[in-house]
Amino acid sequence: MNFLSKIIRQRVRQRAENRCEYCLSYQEYIMGRLQIDHIQPLAKGGIDTEDNLCLACELCNQYKWTQTESLDSESGKTVSLFNPRQQQWKEHFYWSTDGTEIVALTACGRATVKALRLNNRLAVTVRKNWVQAGWHPPS
Fold this sequence. Notes:
139 residues; two-stranded antiparallel sheet; two-stranded antiparallel ribbon; 6 strands
């Protein structure tokens, strides 16, 4: 089992502004604690350095698991998943007009939306409530 220091965990949370770096859900809106994700999983040779760590909600982390790439639905090619340490979210995704779905702009974005099921029924339903409350989409 891997153990990250409290300081590293705090820095990862601060850098992510206490929200999932894949779906942008804020810690204060979800019922589980955001988790530290290894972008390059330990099972695939990843290491415990801050540039390989990001903050993820349980759903995103569960769907990502050990995936680092997936198929782009348009080209049919295998592409790398979104890497929050090396890429900017808004270059690969944007929010649908109603603020409930993450729309992909790139092959990487499409593969990530599909692999992490960023628009699964639960996520979209919860986001609808967040939109009604004025909490979503994040800026």
